[in-house]
Write a structure and sequence with these properties.
- The structure is a single chain.
- The chain is of the alpha+beta class.
- Among the domains are: about 55 residues, no CATH class; about 110 residues, 2-Layer Sandwich (Tetrahydropterin Synthase, Chain A); about 25 residues, no CATH class.
- About 55% of the residues lie in helices and about 20% in strands.
- The protein has eight helices and nine strands.
- Strands 6, 7, 8 and 9 form a four-stranded antiparallel sheet that branches. The chain has a three-stranded antiparallel sheet with strand order 3-2-5, with no helix packed on it. It has a two-stranded antiparallel ribbon with strand order 1-4.
- Strand 7 and strand 8 form a beta hairpin.
- The longest helix is centred in the C-terminal third of the chain and has 70 residues.
- The radius of gyration is 55 Å and the shape is rod-shaped.
Length: about 300
């Protein structure tokens, strides 16, 4: 039993020694923490990329390079950028990134993390300047700010994908006007808003005139259609009245002849009216039929204004 315990102690001590040696970087065991990723090199060539846990290497022959696998934060300095409408802005931003492919990262940045930061900063600056330069001041500050940041993030991801770097987000931290230009910028913005207001007002007045013209035209068409329908209705009424008169006349022609004669007398003979015609004229046929013939009173004096 004593030999067994001594042997177990020796094995345990050897295992602990191997782990300690692995932590120091010269033992056969490679320990990778959760926030690390390690590349095992043999004669300068990549042999393996470790995951969190234990790995094995050949001492004195294999070398280990340690890379961070956490998301890292990089803040850039403010730089002047000109918008599409000619305004100058001071813009700074930050980037959330990490090493996604340690092999490509090692190949792209042999100088280490400082080279990577410089490359990321340059890529982000180029994308920020290019995207903001295609938008107006109002869009950058308010209308399209979220879309602008998404586009910058997408372009930066594409630019750094083959470098072993993954970009999670690019955010605009601050957008300010350069010192001493606020008043001039505000003046131009007010002038632009005034121009837009005048344009909108003119457009509204033009639409109002067009609506009034269309309304007047529709009103004239409606009135004309109404008069047309009224004339059609009146004509149909006159035709119906004529038909009724014709039928009634056929039923009692003498009576309706009498009525028409009375109507003719009513319309023709009024007060202060003088008629000069023969008593036997057809106009007095009604009186002749009744045995009454009006006595002639002689011709009217010349120049009498009431004579016809």
């Amino acid at each position: 039993m004593r030999r067994f315990f001594v042997l177990a102690a020796l094995i345990l001590g050897a295992f602990v020694g191997l782990i300690a040696a692995g932590n120091r970087g010269w033992g056969p065991i490679v320990i990778t923490r959760e926030d690390q990723q390690k590349v095992i090199l043999r004669l300068g060539e990549v042999r393996a990329v470790t995951s969190p846990g234990l790995a094995v290497r050949v001492p004195f022959l294999d070398r280990v390079r340690v890379y961070d696998r956490r998301w890292l934060h990089l803040t850039t300095e403010a730089l002047p950028i000109q918008t599409q409408d000619g305004e100058q802005l001071m813009v700074d931003n930050y980037v959330i990134w990490r090493i996604d492919d340690p092999v490509a990262y090692r190949r792209s940045f042999p100088g280490g993390i400082n080279d990577a930061r410089e490359r990321i900063d340059r890529a982000v600056r180029d994308d920020v300047r290019e995207v903001i330069g295609r938008h107006t001041l109002t869009q950058v500050l308010k209308d399209a700010r979220v879309e602008i940041m998404r586009e910058i993030t997408r372009q930066t991801q594409e630019a750094l994908a083959d470098k072993g770097i993954a970009v999670a987000d690019v955010r605009i931290n601050r957008t300010e006007l350069p010192a001493g230009t606020e008043q001039s910028v505000y003046g131009r913005m007010m002038a632009e808003r005034g121009r837009l207001a005048r344009g909108n007002r003119a457009e509204g007045e033009e639409q109002a005139r067009r609506i009034h013209a269309e309304t007047d035209r529709e009103a004239r068409v409606i009135v004309a259609n109404g008069w047309r329908d009224a004339e059609i209705t009146r004509g149909e009424g006159d035709a119906e009245s004529t038909r009724i008169y014709a039928e009634a006349y056929q039923t009692a022609p003498e009576f309706y002849a009498f009525l028409r004669s009375l109507e003719a007398y009513r319309k023709s003979i009024g007060e202060r009216t003088t008629l000069v015609m023969s008593p036997k004229a057809e106009f007095f046929q009604l009186f002749q039929g009744s045995g009454f013939v009006p006595e002639p009173k002689g011709p009217a004096p010349l120049g009498d204004p009431g004579s016809k």
